[in-house]
Amino acid sequence: MRNILCLCLFLVNSTIGYTQTITVKDANTSEPIEMVTIVSEELQEFISTNQYGKANISALAGAQAIQIQRLGYQLKTLSFTALKASNFEVLLQPNNFNLNEVIVSATRWRQSSGDIPSKVISISPKEVELQNPQTAADLLGVSGKVYIQKSQQGGGSPMIRGFATNRLLYTVDGVRMNNAIFRGGNIQNVISLDPFATENTEVLFGPGSVIYGSDAIGGVMSFQTLSPEFSGSGSAKISGKVNSRWSSANNEKTIHADIKYGWEKWAFVTSASRWDYDHLRQGRNGPDDYLKTYHVERIEGEDRVVEQDSPLIQEPTAYSQKNLMQKVRFQPNDRWDFQYGFHYSETSEYGRYDRHNRVRNGEPQYAEWRYGPQMWMMNNLNISHSKKSRFFDQLSIRLAQQQFAESRIDRNFQDNIRRNRSEEVDAYSANLDFIKKLGKKSTVFYGSEYVLNIVNSTGQAENIETGTVSSSASRYPEASWSSIAVYTNYEYKPSDRVTVQGGVRYTQFLLNAEFDTAFYSFPFTEAKINNGALTGSLGMVYHPGDSWSLNANFGTAFRAPNVDDVGKIFDSEPGSVTIPNPNLKAEYAYNWDIGIAKIFNDFLKVDFTAYYTLLNNAMVRRDFQLNGEDSVIFDGVNSQVQAIQNAAVANVYGIQAGLEMKFPGGINLSSDLNYQIGEEELDDGSVSPSRHAAPMFGTTRLNFKSNDFLVQVYANYQAERKHLDLAVEERGKTEIYALDKNGNTFSPAWYTLNFKMSYQLWDDFGINAGIENITDQRYRPYSSGMSAPGRNYVFSLNYKF
């Protein structure tokens, strides 16, 4: 009987499992530290602390070396036995600088940034909370290393190292967001993400095709959303936050709430946000070229030009947005982890402001030009399994289904025909990733990926006088785009100071499109592409000492032609129309970069990266012919025929530099500077500046922190881009750029002075306030179709429980 009782107790203990909770605190203040990363490389386990500085580390039992680290604190390495002897309480000493932090964007697995040859940055939640970005595009701009272009408030198109749009890759919780209609022109998809529901944001600079495949040429932007948290015990744990915000420049009214509730094996997180923005006011001091004194209204059955009460108001730019997120996590034991996520985002209609500035024959070209509601939905399931075996130590399965919907609605001035072109994309993806440690010095990451996009595009023409609706030409053909790939990435650490990484990936991509010739007499009815791409990378990191880091990296990347490249019909600029080209091939990039980071006397940190990227077989818009003709009538205008073609070689080179100084008394100064030059080959063999290589830009910040009070004074700035330094295709866009003394377009230099502060009134209640663009500058970021906000007062309340 006794033996049976012992056996039963053993089975119960085995079933319930052994739990142990660690608590991590600041050594000086004894305050709990959130988002501390607890890593065991030997067990390939990663855990992070919750808002109370606690984490369940039962999975690390028996580990000899457990790394406990967080940005701003000294790394501490302890064994599980030592942790147990300290009653599972750890005190971290604040550290001015750190050359290592845990990131996931480089390989989809958690790694130390000190082992990665590529440049990777992480945008801290604390900085996001202080800066209060209105959109996810603004969140990226907080880094000071990503340039943001805007043509409307409901937008934001990042530029990284001279590349943008479909030459950059977005991922959400490890799932590819890029779809088959991501275009070469500026895209707004990043605003579908919720900054309040983003736990961590990382940017990998340079090629990322070995891990992520097509489009990862200039960089990868990785967004990790809020994760459900277990209680670590049988009782429930509930936490969350509520945020509200108001901004004066666009009369922003925002509300957000999220709640986390978890038990020992089940955990949930629910998030909801709502934004409402009025028309944006620009600054008083700047070029008059940016002022628009009128807008078009439909009055008594005709379009009329109406003078605005204030030329500083950019009408139409108002819009609203809502986001919802629900996550469920189940961890039956230490080996298995199941996470399901649902994401939904939808905007209102919003005006394309730069199109409303176009003039034809002395009158506005458009009476209407707006985007319909932009919708994004994602269901994703992530399954992780940890068990040492012959083939892997950990595996991850990611299954995702996404839906995208967008539309363009326009009507010419004094024209009764309103055109509506709508697109829907159903995107499916499956990723299978493995990690295997080979001895103490080597680790191999490998996996496979399958992606399928189905594109549905329709066109309608509505007579606004009679209400008659008829079919019209769609923007895209009915099409599918898919890819299947395998990859491997190998890491070798011959010593604690040297890490070598190399990887290779093969991708097969297919495109099938069927063209409707009812509206255009194309000399073809279908397009089929079945091709492959081989990419690779090789890099090294060397740490001469604890305060030094040197890295060098070579990588290749590719972008496969998508449905937007092959099949689009649109008016790229007045007097030009882009038509389909079914004969496209992939473009390839070759990138070299070197970097150095050095800490001086725990007072000054300097980092510097230089890079060069060559883009071969680049897909660019060039003059073309349709049925032997070089021009056609499009929307009532005789237009030059153009098409996307593999017709150029482009190169980009530049530097990224940063410094940070820590002074006594909680004062620190930091600065980031980015300088890039891009060149693109033209038809006649001459060279044009690249459109997406931003002028020199940067950010300088001065911070003061004392207990619960934080103040930041900072400046954002951009250098001038002269007329001859603009891309040839940009020089005629008077609706975007200012005019110099000779009447030529150019992008003036600008700067803003800004102030932000946060104060934690109580443990659970805080306020944030700020003044952006204090001197009320009227400026327009390079290539943007609208001016940035003028003087802007921001006020927010934050409640955590």
From TrEMBL:
Residues 115-220 form the TonB-dependent receptor plug domain. The keyword Metal-binding does not apply. One of its GO terms (molecular function) is siderophore uptake transmembrane transporter activity. It is a multi-pass membrane protein. The keyword Membrane applies. InterPro entries: Beta-barrel_TonB, Beta-barrel_TonB_sf, Plug_dom, Plug_dom_sf, TonB-dep_rcpt-like, TonB_rcpt_CS. It is found in: Cell outer membrane. Its main location: membrane. Keywords: Cell outer membrane, Membrane, Receptor, Signal, TonB box, Transmembrane, Transmembrane beta strand, Transport. GO terms for biological process: siderophore transmembrane transport. Gene3D superfamilies: TonB-dependent receptor, beta-barrel domain (2.40.170.20), TonB-dependent receptor, plug domain (2.170.130.10). Residues 316-774 form the TonB-dependent receptor-like beta-barrel domain. One of its GO terms (cellular component) is cell outer membrane. Belongs to the TonB-dependent receptor family. This is TonB-dependent receptor. It comes from Marivirga tractuosa (strain ATCC 23168 / DSM 4126 / NBRC 15989 / NCIMB 1408 / VKM B-1430 / H-43). The lineage of its organism: Bacteria, Pseudomonadati, Bacteroidota, Cytophagia, Cytophagales.
